[in-house]
Amino acid sequence: MGRGRRPSAEVRDEVLQAAGDLLVDQGMGAFTIEKVAALSGASKMTIYKWWPSKGALALEGYFSAVESTLAFPDTGNVRADLRSQLHAFVDLLSMTHAGRALAQLIGQAQTDPDLMESYRATYSSPRRALAVARLEAAVAIGQLRADLDAESVVDQLWGACYHRLLIPDRPLDHDFVDALVANLFGGVGA
Amino acid sequence: MGRGRRPSAEVRDEVLQAAGDLLVDQGMGAFTIEKVAALSGASKMTIYKWWPSKGALALEGYFSAVESTLAFPDTGNVRADLRSQLHAFVDLLSMTHAGRALAQLIGQAQTDPDLMESYRATYSSPRRALAVARLEAAVAIGQLRADLDAESVVDQLWGACYHRLLIPDRPLDHDFVDALVANLFGGVGA
């Protein structure tokens, strides 16, 4: 069967994989629909049929590409699991082009409402929901406070990392995320 | 004495005040050097002599304009003081054009290294230093843990607010900052 006759679900997966790889390996500056088309073997017309803009394609490809790296482990200890996941998150932001790419997408979204909508629908809302689900699972087995506002904890762990990514006054590293986790689990009071 | 002979410190203050007022009242979209010149009575040439770009002028004006609103109260109770200051901060971001203006400046800074440098030098680093000083004063009198990493707390209070400002998946309001403070002071563990 020729390439043109591949099932569309398969083509879609290959386009997303090419988009995610391109973003992580080379950043948003090098990201074009042409390159994704060349890497995936899909036509530009096919790609434009499924994604309204290169930002939307980059974000959906990135979400798929990082899903396994950012999966939440479940060793039975939520504090240790959050720490491991946050280390993987910070490594992804600092050791690949993903950090700069996300920063540029978030930056551009401040004056581009369509990109903001794509960012929230395709990336930030689903990632937030996964984090809240992991925190609520820990509430359910009594490892976190029963009255915990899990949404605010998301802003104090991953949101704090985005703050250092976007305004790099201080380093975004393992020591930082260890301090974030220690502040929340140990409390800051004397 | 004519306007042209005002002492330069006075002119500088009036330019900064005009810049800060313009940013808070009308946002970055309406911010021009021409308008600041007209409002302050200074010439455009004078303004360009002191500030390399309109971003740098907007940021320094904004810093001066919000300094008293964002001052840290000291009632002897650091938890209550942080809560009041954060309420004032969130009100400033949501009830004036300041929130959108800062979001656009941070956004543009992701692809404009000069603006990022101005933002960090003129706004984010000095504001961070003021917050760290307030937290360390509370450590010194035994209200916060002696081994506290104050820098990371800045990212979990104000940084968490910037996260909701820049990626508005959830509301940025008083309930949110109350949850941030409660998580840090009460701890999230069961």
What does it look like?
Two copies of one chain form a homodimer. Chain A has helices spanning 8-26, 33-40, 44-50, 54-66, 78-95, 98-109, 113-140, 150-166, 174-186. The model of chain A has no long low-confidence stretch (mean pLDDT 94). Chain A is built from nine helices and no strands. The N and C termini of chain A lie far apart (69 Å). The first copy, chain A, folds into two domains: 3-55, Homeodomain-like (Arc Repressor Mutant, subunit A); 67-186, Tetracycline Repressor, domain 2 (Orthogonal Bundle), CATH 1.10.357. In chain A, helix 8 (150-166) runs antiparallel to helix 9. Chain A is mainly alpha-helical. The longest helix of chain A is centred in the middle third of the chain and has 28 residues, at 113-140. The interface between A and B is large, with 48 and 49 residues.
